Amino acid sequence: MSLKTVIFCSGCHFPISIIAGSIYMGDLPPHFQRGTLWNTCCSNELYKNIFDGGCCLGEAPGGTRVMAFSAPSSAHLLANLTGTFLEINGISKKNYLVVEIPIHESPLLALGKMLLKWPATRPAGRRLIEGCLEKIYPQLVQAIKLDGNFQISDN
Amino acid sequence: MKIIYHCYGGAHSSVTAANIHLGLLPKEKIPGYRDLVNQKLFDCHQVKDSGRITFMGRDEAGNEIYIVGRRSRPSLLYNATGGLAEAFGIHSGSYVLVDVSPHVNVTMKAGGIISRRLGLVSIGRPLVTWGTLITYRGIVQLVEKTLKSLPTGSFTGGGSLVSTAGLKV
């Protein structure tokens, strides 16, 4: 039997599906903490490699595998794609849950991500991103509570 | 095997390719305007259906034929399906992705936008159908190329010996 999986899909320039997944897994607290967030999700290469694809973040304490997909302005496309692709391949809906993160594209996040490219503008980019993420963080926590409450029976 | 034809909206070129593959449209000659307009799912998909893989039918060899609209992000489709296949243990040779968008001409693009995005079907549909008639032979060639690339005797549920996932035909 395949591992139970929660798949987070986001459509922002900054891959907030990774943050949602990390909150779900318990790697990030339910309340915003700048340093923890940056060290967990933003300082490594993970967030750079997720675009136009997905990544497996790991396993939640309950044994559920967590995956994150992200592509600018394509959260709905990704959610449709992942759901139907698994469906046509005979994966039971009991074994996965696709969560579309209901947060729309933010130009400031896109700008912040762009500023991270150059060493001189990196601090400003980080500050901009952290400011935006602080605003949307409660929404992310709420989205996970609403949709990510993933309880599947083994039957 | 699953053959997934994909294009920008999943409403015209991929639908036409799938119907040619299924033998619902002729390979030898260019069909009439009515034949194209009346084909299954032609000019039907909406923007909200982006990414939804839709079953079109089974071909003579038992292959399942699907269509999907992936907007301007073919790499997203290739990477996402590849990642999911790996994570869920789906055999990478059990599906083929066929990009029909190189055969989409300007007339089809304009007609598609007018019909699907702007909702002006009475103007957009004749335009996109006319564009499809112009590029029809190219789509037939693509379907034939796809059929040739399939492992002999491929069937639904069976893993092929040759990995064809992500194949750009």
What this model shows, in words?
The complex is a heterodimer of chains A (155) and B (169). With 155 residues, chain A is of the alpha/beta class. Helix content of chain A is 46%, strand content 15%. Chain A is built from 6 helices and 4 strands. Chain A has a 4-stranded mixed sheet with strand order 2-3-1-4, sandwiched between helices. The mean pLDDT of chain A is 82. Chain B is of the alpha/beta class. Chain B has 5 helices and 4 strands. Chain B has a 4-stranded mixed sheet with strand order 2-3-1-4, with helices on one face. In chain B, α1 crosses α5 (121-149). The longest helix of chain B has 29 residues, at 121-149. Mean pLDDT of chain B is 87; it is low at 155-169. Chain A binds chain B through residues 2, 5, 52-56, 65, 67, 69, 71, 74, 76-82, 84-89, 91, 96, and chain B through 2, 48-55, 64, 66, 68, 70-71, 73, 75-77, 79-85, 87-90, 94-95.
Question: Summarize this, please?
Answer:
The complex is a heterodimer of chains A (155) and B (169). Chain A is α/β, with parallel strands linked by helices and 155 residues long.
What is the secondary structure topology, with strand pairs?
The complex is a heterodimer of chains A (155) and B (169).
Chain A lengths: L4 E6 L5 H10 L8 H9 L3 H4 L3 E7 L5 E6 L4 H14 L7 E5 L6 H9 L6 H26 L8
Chain B lengths: L1 E6 L5 H9 L11 H5 L16 E5 L5 E6 L4 H15 L6 E5 L6 H12 L3 H29 L20
Parallel strand pairs in B: 1-3, 1-4
Antiparallel strand pairs in B: 2-3
Helix pairs in contact in B: 1-5, 4-5
Strand order of the largest sheet of chain B: 2-3-1-4
C-alpha termini separation of chain B = 16 Å
Task: Please mark out the parts of chain B with pLDDT under 50 across 5 or more consecutive residues, or reply none.
Answer: 155-169
Overall domain count of chain B: 1
Q: Averaged pLDDT of chain B, please?
A: 87
Query: What oligomeric arrangement do these chains adopt?
Result: heterodimer
Order of helices and strands of chain A: EHHHEEHEHH
Q: Which H/E pattern describes the elements of chain B?
A: EHHEEHEHH
Shape of chain B: globular
Beta fraction of the residues of chain A? 15-25%
Q: Report helical residue fraction of chain B.
A: 40-55%
Number of strands of chain B: 4
- Secondary structure category of chain A: alpha/beta
Mean pLDDT of chain A: 82
The number of helical segments of chain B is: 5
